[in-house]
Amino acid sequence: MPQKSLQDRLAILADAAKYDASCASSGAGNRNALKDKGIGSTEGMGICHAYAPDGRCISLLKILLTNACIYDCAYCINRVSSNVERAAFTPAEVADLTMAFYRRNYIEGLFLSSGIIRTSDYTMELMLEAVRLLRTEHRFSGYVHLKTIPECSPELMSEAGRLADRLSINVELPTRAGLKQLAPEKDETTIRTAMGHVRSRIEDAKDARRDRTLRRAKPPRFAPGGQSTQMIVGADAASDAEILTTSATLYAGYGLRRVYYSAFSPIPAPSAVLPLKAPPLKREHRLYQADWLHRFYGFEMPEIEAATTGGMLDLDIDPKLAWALRNRHVFPVDVNKADREMLLRIPGIGTTAVKAILKTRRHRSLRLDDLSKMTRALKRALPFLVAADWRPTQMLDAAGLEASLRPPKQMELFDAP
Amino acid sequence: MMPVTYAVTLAHDADFTGWRSAARRLDANHVQPGCVQWRCEGDPQPDFLLPAARPYQELPTGNAARTVPGAFVSLAQKLICHSADDRFTLAYRLFRRLREEPQLLSDAGDDDMHRAHLMAKAVSRDAHKMKAFVRFREVTPDQGADDRPHFVAWFEPDHHIVDATAPFFMRRFAGQSWSILTPERCAHWDGETLSFTPGVPRSQAPDGDPAEDLWRTYFASTFNPARLMVKAMTAEMPKKYWKNLPEAQLIDPLIADAQKRHQAMQDTAPRAPARSTRVRRDHEAGSRAADAPIRSLDDLAAAGRSCTRCPLHCGATQAVPGAGPGDAPLMLVGEQPGDHEDIAGKPFVGPAGDVLNDVLRETGILRDRAFVTNAVKHFKFELRGRRRLHRSPDAGEVAHCQWWLAKELELVRPRVVVALGVTAARALTGQTVTLNAMRGAVHDMADGTQLVVTNHPSALLRQRNAEAARQLRGNMLADLTTARRCLEAAG
Ligand code: SF4
């Protein structure tokens, strides 16, 4: 069989990688190419270099080394029983392609993943070789995210941590039962143990770098951009509350930077064990919002769960508003007196607005005119707050409040082409 | 009498240094913001000159040194890059107001500050988009030039950001030489120095690059037609940028095709998992292995991995089996693995393990010669924000897990067992005992093993009162010494 062209293989291996939702390229610290006259930098915030018509940012060259795989995970386009066309890159091709794109400022770096061929270690070796080439031959200092294979040996995992900025290991499904049913060859304990291993290596490296009492050489880095994971939403029966509880457990247990939620999306070669209908993309969006409340707004998962219906987040309104509507007794919150925690609970008031409120009220008491300069969602916030010249009158009790805050039913997330 | 008006001419549109030295001198002479006329070199002369506008250089230098908070400097630096004509005036007004109103910078409700923040944000966004959407094209260097690859890009910023943003490209693309051309100002890097030249027309920029075909292939393939969200795309990548993005020509055709492709996917008949039989077979073999007779500690640990007797397996990383020699005369039983043990898969490796090692050393017991385990094998915790807080297992969980502890006792056959804490004592005796009742004596278990009960080492860690902690440590020392004596007596 004649070898497919580079372009044809890129089409196949980018298509195969697009179901991984992660695109972040931040948190790798400060690094640039000035000293060694190489190519590449990371400066805190990552950059999205393009957006696809699905609204997703394109930040990294996200590809698979190969889409051949010995596993048979039902939700995955690359599973052994799928009839997609197969292809593979050599490690050198991956490195060259990354450099060609990076030099032209198309990307922040590489996100490399792979189907499992032969053995986990064999596959990991090939992936590591691609990154080794980038780092040494091409003197590449840009961002590298490696999707590691949980079953690989600890030595390979360590090398992955030295070469890459971020490691990720996908838990795939929110519950053990779901994993057993849809990905029978994967083992949750192995996945979690690998995540635990990565967590302790990251912590050790941080401690070692902090604790440099003796002027020794800089201890090696280990995945300075941390680790992340992905869960598929809607392929099994797990509720939003179950999904979020799993996330909270993963954040706390493995110090994850991010949990990505990927609404199971129809694939060109579906498996018979999957539900026929994909979940609404809105569900994924609400999960991200709830996750955000947990990480930055001080919401504990049980609080969020209490604002769901039967474990499912409201698709029409965001989870913070849903929580407020069910906890009207704590409102209205006085923006001139309340502490930070309570300010963060006001719908329509975000972390930036809270910072501005706290800063400004040191000097004078806040009026609505001030607030209008701090948030763009003041209208949504009004029923829930008190300011120097504003007090909601009975609005919180009005039966119409909820209805007035719900968007009209026909609102659609999709815009028709 | 009309106040005198001063004219300042800055070197270029984003000349922060020029603005700063003029602002300092004007301020030292108490010139009001309304009495300064700012313009940049190359701007058309204003149609009319304000009456009596005099070059500001005529003012005495005065005592021009004045310190301002760093936050103001970074705000002003951005503000100056904005395209609004009154940016220099606004920055100068803020500078003046700061004299009387030191709290101004932290007043997010002030009109001037609000506008300055919005303008600074617009500048940051523009710079960010420049970092994102500049597309370099490779060009053949001129004859005689070095053979370093040379790249040229064309970009059209909204604000005067080329000077401020060029260093980013220098740090990132140090190893190649490049130029970014814009209608207003161009930046160049030759591998050694960063330089700026006046703007050029679009026609001076190169037109294509063979790598763009590959890039378009990638752009098209990474798009998922089942998730069309055009608004989300244009919010971040507004149409005004499209004409300079090689991939953008694909956007309309991709959108037009998406519906059809999505439908085709939904119409594809699903396929049964091809290897379902093999998988099932493997699985059955696996569960048979789990039922296989347990003859060694390794068998036991392997079987324990997949234990689901109680719900604790759901949240934990892994079951943590006991560790130590299979013929150890002494077995130490704790409560359950903690955060560190859960990750490491080994008992007593965290802070409580350090306390235990300490006390063992002092008692003269070698930890390597003891078998160390827990009453419950999975970590039980409660989530508090991003932390996992230890929670004691309940009677049901202890009872379920007792099965594993019994197997360990059976395989190791220690002569003396030390229960560290009340949970272990309950698991070992099967009774609701208390520490106080059990401590200080040697108990005989049904199988002839001797049992000594003491505190859990983490009780010392939790104790805030130093005296009480000393006492607990004393208890542990005494109890472990008792255990050592029992071992010696048993020979
Ligand atoms: S705690 Fe014990 S009984 Fe419960 S699942 Fe874990 S090993 Fe099994």
From TrEMBL, chain A:
- Tree of life domain: Bacteria
Q: Does the keyword Metal-binding apply?
A: yes
Its recorded name reads Putative DNA modification/repair radical SAM protein
Where does this protein come from, organism-wise?
A: Pyruvatibacter mobilis
Q: Which Gene3D superfamilies match?
A: Aldolase class I, Photosystem II 12 kDa extrinsic protein
CDD domains of this UniProt entry?
Radical_SAM
Keywords, alphabetical: Iron, Iron-sulfur, Metal-binding, S-adenosyl-L-methionine
Residue ranges annotated for the Elp3/MiaA/NifB-like radical SAM core domain, each copy included: 59-290
User: Which cofactor(s) does the record list?
Assistant: [4Fe-4S] cluster
Recorded GO molecular functions are: catalytic activity; iron-sulfur cluster binding; metal ion binding
Automatic annotation (TrEMBL), chain B:
Q: Which UniProt keywords apply?
A: 4Fe-4S, DNA damage, DNA repair, Hydrolase, Iron, Iron-sulfur, Metal-binding
Q: What residues does the Uracil-DNA glycosylase-like domain cover? A: 321-473
BP-aspect Gene Ontology terms: DNA repair
Family note: Belongs to the uracil-DNA glycosylase (UDG) superfamily. Type 4 (UDGa) family.
* Secretion signal, residue range per the UniProt entry: none
Q: Which Pfam families match?
A: DUF4130, UDG
Give the span(s) annotated as Disordered: 264-289
Drop me one GO molecular function for this one. metal ion binding
Protein name, as recorded = Type-4 uracil-DNA glycosylase
Kindly list the residue ranges recorded as spanning the membrane: none
